[in-house]
Design a protein that fits this description.
Shape: elongated
Helix content: over 70%
Strand content: under 5%
Structural class: mainly alpha
Largest sheet: none
Distance between the termini: 24 Å
Number of strands: 0
Length: about 100
């Protein structure tokens, strides 16, 4: 559920594409481009629904990749990579606990 919430959170950032003074065509193109992170996270959720190891790898990788590309913006890293890392760790715990029961 947290992973779905992160996807919705990222999707909210796409709404800034509809700024005043921007043409409708440009706004829709920007909106679609801004939805790419949300769709990426949603895809990771769908792929890892029954396979938690995929979620662990995907979300931890996404968190680290964003942290590396964000540079020195600690506030951005915490706001974006933080939730991604939390979801990745939860998938990792789920995977490890299901592996120990098998």
């Amino acid at each position: 559920m947290l992973a779905l919430a992160v996807s919705v959170f990222f999707g909210l950032f796409a709404l800034d594409a509809f700024a005043p003074g921007k043409s409708r065509a440009d706004a829709w193109i920007d909106f679609a481009l801004h939805l790419v992170p949300a769709i990426t996270v949603l895809t990771a959720v769908l792929l890892s629904w029954q396979r938690p190891w995929i979620g662990a790898v995907a979300f931890i990788t996404l968190a680290l990749a964003y942290a590396i590309t964000a540079g020195a913006r600690l506030d951005w890293i915490l706001a974006i990579s933080g939730p991604l890392m939390a979801v990745g760790v939860l998938f990792l715990v789920s995977w490890r606990s299901s592996a120990s029961r098998a």
